[in-house]
Amino acid sequence: MHDLLLREVRIVPLDPTDGPDPGPTDVLILDGAVARVGPRTEARKGIPEVEGAGRWALPGLWDHHVHATQWGLTRSRLDTSAATSVAHAQDLVRRALTDGPVPATGVLVAFGHRTATWAEQPTVADLDAVTTAVPLVLISGDAHHGWLNTPALRLLGAPATLGVVEEWEWFPVYDRLSALPGAREVAEVGVARALREAQQRGVVGVTDLEFGRPWEQWRQREDRGMPHVRARVGVYPDGLEEVVRSGLRTGDPLVGARGLVTMGPFKVISDGSLSTRTAWCCEPYADGAQLPLPHGAANLGADDLAALVGLAHDAGIRSAVHAIGDAAVRQALEVFEATGAEGGIEHAQLVALEDLELWSRLPVRASVQPAHLLDDRPATEQCWPDRAGRTFALRAFLDRGIEVVLGSDAPVSRLDPWLAAAAAVHRGPVDEASWHPEQAITPREALACSVDGQRLAPGARGDVVLVDEDPLAGHDLTSGEQAARLRATTVSVTVVDGQVVHGG
């Protein structure tokens, strides 16, 4: 932990009850915690100082849903996010095979395609037609399915299929990609780069919901001198009993991680995704007549989900339940109520508004990734056109007193809290009309949902971000203009645990 004095900064008022701007003030951090906020602060000799020069200060920003290893690996993967059809994706892969060598792993991995609006759905034969000499793995932009050719299916031990490998059959295959020769080293270089970029955007902490054993990965990262950030690491069902036996509880620091890395939540994926059309819904998909499961599907029955959440709760581990469709959200709420567990619902992309009364009475937050709506709008209008007004329902959550935290789900969206805040404020590209603006929130609310509940006050963590301009200025601007200002925000200083990690 470190000491630091920030001189002459202006505090961004994150609460509606905050009074008028009192003008420049000082923020003193001692032993990694805010000790004093006030003008003309005296500090003992030798404490480093940063001249704020009137810049605006707010608590450090968090991304509450990241897959750190996969985010790091995107830097070495072919980008197929622009693909609009099977043929388009095939062309992108052919071009990559022609233009460059096969990666050292021997497998060409791509990421980003979204098939929900494609006229034809991908098959193994489609990729075999490109090549059977090189294993090909195309990961969907929501990470809920893999499109593999025959050599890749064999190499990775994937189940035999004619189409894509999805959901519970896919996730173990997805994790095996990280075990390919050289993949882990490539990933860690990418993770370090990604964390440095995140610091430049004011990010001081992430909740890493990576598969495998992220608690071990983060210990190793600390040993290698990775960028100075806080992390909460999750555990999935296959590792839950091990963590329970270890005695680790949510919030406990990991030994050897300098106190910045702690045990996070138990993560369980209770349904699928919109793009893969496996999110579990109360009503059938509008285009679902030809789907094998027109409503999507639950990955777990209520009893099985309750048993897992209850086990975690009894061991002092909060639960993070992935639920995208409104039926999955309802089941998760009922399980939280029945078990008395605390935690959050991850994504909560589609909700039944009548379920929010129950939600408002539970110690359960909504962990939402607003930038997903930028990518998912076409699929939503095709699959859920009759319920689009209750997707990413941030306004409804806040109006009912439900705690909201924002994230990216990187690599599904970019790890950028300013992008997430902008999407929450405007709900669309900044130069287009807002999509269902009745569910938009204000810049103040979006930033308050991005600081992990912290305020710049004595006792708070010594994590601070300085920005060049007031991010809440422009009350007379349209939501699109406000969102553009948020996306253009310049972070000049990032402080973690009293240490300057970006700028100065």
TrEMBL record:
Q: Name one Pfam family in it.
A: Amidohydro_3
Q: Domain Amidohydrolase: where?
A: 53-502
- InterPro entries per the UniProt record, alphabetical: Amidohydro_3, Metal-dep_hydrolase_composite, Metal_Hydrolase
**Gene3D superfamilies associated with the record:** 3.10.310.70, Metal-dependent hydrolases, Urease, subunit C, domain 1
Coiled coil region boundaries: none
**GO MF annotations in UniProt:** hydrolase activity, acting on carbon-nitrogen (but not peptide) bonds
Q: SUPFAM superfamilies in the record, alphabetically?
A: Composite domain of metallo-dependent hydrolases, Metallo-dependent hydrolases
The record ties this protein, via PANTHER family, to:
IMIDAZOLONEPROPIONASE (PTHR22642), PROTEIN LONG AFTER FAR-RED 3 (PTHR22642:SF2)
Question: Mind telling me what this protein is named?
Answer: Amidohydrolase 3 domain-containing protein
Q: Which organism is it from?
A: Ornithinimicrobium cerasi
